[in-house]
Amino acid sequence: MYDMLRRYGQDARQAKDIVKKLSENLKVLDINATDVQSALNNEMTDYEDALLACCAKRQKAEYIITRNEKDFKLSSVPALSPQVFLEKF
Asked: What's the pTM value of the predicted model, to 2 decimals?
């Protein structure tokens, strides 16, 4: 998130402030060894996406928020774009 904010024009202080506010209102998930192994055995083609999907499943997340919904078609946790997420909630 920080890198994306910086890429789209926020300075370092602004990016940190935004990430801090988000982390106060959203749950930040950890990745463990089980997630690593599950992702290696997952049918998703992109390993990092599979890792995120496995972590989300273990944590019983309701959604994965991503700008790349198509890569999460095989995820057991549904993916939503940021725009759709904001419209829904």
From this structure: 0.75
Phi, psi values for residue 64, rounded to 5°: -110, 125
Taking 3-state DSSP, the helix, strand and coil percentages for the chain, each rounded to the nearest 5, stand at: 55, 5, 40
Each residue's pLDDT tens digit, 32-49: 999 999 999 999 999 999
Whether 57 and 32 have beta carbons less than 8 Å apart is answered as no
Structure tokens at 25: 């209102």
| Dihedral (Cα; 60, 42, 73, 71), 10-degree rounding | 110
In sign, the C-alpha dihedral spanning 43, 48, 52, 58 is positive
Distances (CA, A) of 11 to 3, 8, 74: 10, 9, 36
Beta bridge partner(s), residue 64:
79
Would you state the structure tokens that stand for residue 56, as one six-digit string? 């989300």
